[in-house]
Amino acid sequence: YRLDKSYYPQYSGVNNTSQVYTHQLERHASEHTTYYWNLAAGRVTSIGQYLPAFIPIGNTGVAQAPVSSTALSSNYNTTTLTTSLGFEHKVSERDQVLGTATGGWVEQAEQNKNDVPGQARQVLRSEVAGLDLRYEHATGPHSKIGGELTNVYIRGLAPRGHDNYTALEGSYRRNLTSHLDLRVAAGPLFSTASGDQLVRTNTFSYAASANLEYNIAHSRMAFSYARVLQLAYLQTATTANQFGVVFDRELTPTIDLTVDARYVRADSSSAILKQSQFGLTGKIDKRIAPNVLLFVSASRSQQKIPSALGNNNSFDRDDVFGGITVLFGNPIYRRGVH
Predict the structure, then answer these.
(1) Residue 42, exposed/middle/buried by CB under 10 A (0-12, 13-18, 19+)?
(2) 166 or 318: whose pLDDT is higher?
(3) Calpha distance 326→102 (Å, rounded)
(4) What is the CB neighbour count within 10 angstroms for residue 50?
(5) How far apart are CA 255 and CA 283, in angstroms?
(6) What DSSP state is assigned to residue 55?
(7) Angle at CA 275, nearest 5°, toward 270 and 278?
(8) pLDDT tens-digit profile of 291-334?
(9) Would you tell me how many other CB atoms lie within 10 Å of the CB of residue 308?
(10) How many Å apart are CA 23 and CA 25, to the nearest integer?
(11) SS3 call for 291
(12) Contact 159, 195 (CB under 8 A)
């Protein structure tokens, strides 16, 4: 559980509180079968939180919508709830089956209602559900091939609408070295959408993802790409390309550096949906006691929407923060665990 409280002495109107709760539970039912239950929930204010919210489902997932101009002027709250139940079962020494059921809730709401006179408070609410079933076969000591079936359903509550996406992908995974792993997947994507402001439409596209991860003692770096589903305020969700980078390095036994970046660009022929979001956060933690950390973080947020639409929803924003983190209970800050 994490609680963040921010005070701005000269701008009390943007004082805010953010809360995040996560847990991961695993049960090893037998030597061949494992069950797990993950839960993540949070209510995060946009200030200082610049990575677009994302709910992963299989090789794809659901990304939050771009921020509207009214929400930007007064900051906005993103409320998410995601839970997943899954299993892993080894059929044989070379074969295994994995399955996951995911449910989620996403709400983006303008923080202050009356910041823009005569303009309604902007709110987006969606429910998300997904099923993912994967089969993997080891072709050798360092490689695997497989097939994956993923279904994602998005129910828009404000505005109302229904989206359903089904992807069938082939995958390949290989340990390039003892520290470097590669995974790629691709296949057809079929979708159907309907809503209050949209007639029922069927589309045929493609799904794809790629992950390259490097791990050594006290350091991790990962690059990722995925075709994802991006929510929208006045339209149904659209496919988008998401790129991510994660870097985590222990500089000294008491100092840790973390960098996380994400870029999402809508893949649509519609000028209204041709938009992009970029978020970058860097953080340095200094442990001064077993359960006390000092931190400094810098964040960059950028959103680009075609100016031909006549709106002011494009923006750039930078912030620098400093603070202290206290870990209650047993000290959990250890090498490789954060």
Answers:
(1) middle
(2) 166
(3) 32
(4) 21
(5) 10
(6) E
(7) 160
(8) 888 999 898 888 887 765 555 567 787 888 888 877 765 554 44
(9) 9
(10) 7
(11) coil
(12) yes
Residue 41 burial class via C-beta count within 10 angstroms: exposed 0-12, middle 13-18, buried 19 and up: middle
C-alpha neighbours within 13 Å on the C-beta side of residue 84: 24
pLDDT digits (tens, 9 = 90+) for 194-244: 766 666 778 888 999 999 999 998 899 999 999 988 876 556 677 889 999
37 to 63, 113, 255: CA distances (angstroms):
22, 37, 32
Sign of torsion over alpha carbons 263, 210, 273, 230? negative
* Alpha carbons 303 and 50: distance in angstroms, whole number: 11
Q: How many CA atoms lie within 13 A of 36 on its CB side?
A: 16
- What tokens appear for 329 in the block? 């209970």
Q: Is the peptide bond before 188 cis (omega within 30 degrees of 0)?
A: no
Residue 149, judged by CB atoms within 10 A of its CB (0-12, 13-18, 19+), counts as middle
> Is the CB of residue 63 less than 8 Å from the CB of residue 231?
yes
Query: What is the residue-wise DSSP string for 97-135?
Result: EEEEEEEEEEEEEES-TTSSTT-PPPEEEEEEEEEEEEE
Q: Are 220 and 201 spatial neighbours (Cβ–Cβ below 8 Å)?
A: no
Q: CB-hemisphere CA count at 13 Å for 280?
A: 9
Residue 262 CA to residue 37 CA, distance in Å, equals: 26
H/E segment holding residue 74:
helix 69-74
- One-letter amino acid at 142 equals H
- Is 264 in contact with 277 (CB distance < 8 Å)? yes
CA distances from 324 to 20, 94, 289, 330 (A): 17, 48, 11, 17
Give the number of other Cβ atoms within 10 Å of residue 93's Cβ: 7
**Cα 25 to Cα 186: distance, rounded to the nearest angstrom:** 30
